[in-house]
Amino acid sequence: MRFCITTNKNLKAIDEALKLKDRLIKKGHVFDENNPEIVFSIGGDGNFLKTVQRFINIDPIYATVNFGKLGYLCEYKANEINVLEEDIENKDLNIREISLLETQVKDKTLYAVNEFKIQANSSKTFKFNVLINDTLLENFKGDGCLITTSIGSSGSGKSLGGALVDNEIEMIQFVEIGALRNKVFSSIGSPYVLNFDKKITLDNFKPTSFSMFYDCKSVQFENFEGSLTFKLSDKKIKFLKNKRNNYIGKTREAFVSD
Questions:
Q1: Pairing relation of β-strands 210-214 and 30-31?
Q2: In this structure, is residue 15 part of a structural domain?
Q3: Which of 18, 63, 116, 206 lies at a CB distance of 3.0 to 4.6 Å from 240, suitable for a disulfide?
């Protein structure tokens, strides 16, 4: 097996990563940062998102261990590294594929596990049209919008009033940010959860300078003309599921305080 390990800045995570690397090499596995078959993300959710962007064109299997704060996207806890090793050595693998979000910027396709967020750079009211499958939904006025996957619905989307969606559902969600609503103007005013085959197009931006954030990366637009279309991609990523995990229990643990 060719493998690679990424970590966050947590000293304990770095130490555990070095130990894991040493153990795997002693077992005959090959450390390969250029073309790994499996990538261990030892850190938090942010480290996992950065890791996916780093290996987006390699198509490895991701094995995620939480050494962060929330770790909602991580399948194994910090004290389960040995369990993860055993699962791999015993070939007791439960591999799941998830679709990425994509959009085209000039001649480059950008991918996101969680979300794309469009946000104004100035205090002026941000305006753009929102189309679903080329049919106008609304003329948005406000601060911006968020487009998420079901995986990403537990992140910024939830914080901004979006729906928390079961992560086994393939969907795309549109969430307004700071929408202007009064007796003169109003918008849809709620999260809009769409079937996996829908596409969301934004165009006619005013002002034409704004920012787009996706997972742990960003793009700055200046004097932008044209449109941005978001859809679930044919491109997928594979990650190792921990069969001991209970999604509902994990959701309660992450978001509910007794």
A1: unpaired
A2: yes
A3: 63
* Residue 254: inside a domain: no
| Residues 224, 105 share a domain | yes
> What CATH number does residue 13 fall under?
3.40.50.10330
Q: How many residues does the chain have?
A: 258
Residues 87 and 112 in one domain: no
Q: Are 79 and 45 in contact (CB under 8 A)?
A: no
Question: What's the pTM?
Answer: 0.92
- Considering the domain boundaries, does residue 229 fall inside one? yes
Q: Please state, in angstroms and rounded to a whole number, the distance separating the CA atoms of residues 138 and 136.
A: 6
pLDDT in tens, the chain (258 residues): 999 999 999 999 999 999 999 999 999 999 999 999 999 999 999 999 999 999 999 999 999 999 977 778 899 999 999 999 998 888 878 899 999 999 999 889 999 999 999 999 988 899 999 999 999 999 999 999 999 999 989 888 888 889 999 888 999 999 999 998 887 788 899 999 999 999 999 999 999 999 999 998 999 999 999 999 999 999 999 999 998 887 788 788 778 876
**CATH code for the domain of 229:** 2.60.200.30
Closest by CA to 128, choosing from 212, 233, 250, is: 212
Residues spanned by the domain of 160: 100-235
Q: Which of 61, 92, 123 is the last residue of a domain?
A: 92
Vertex 168, ends 163 and 174: CA angle to 5°?
A: 35
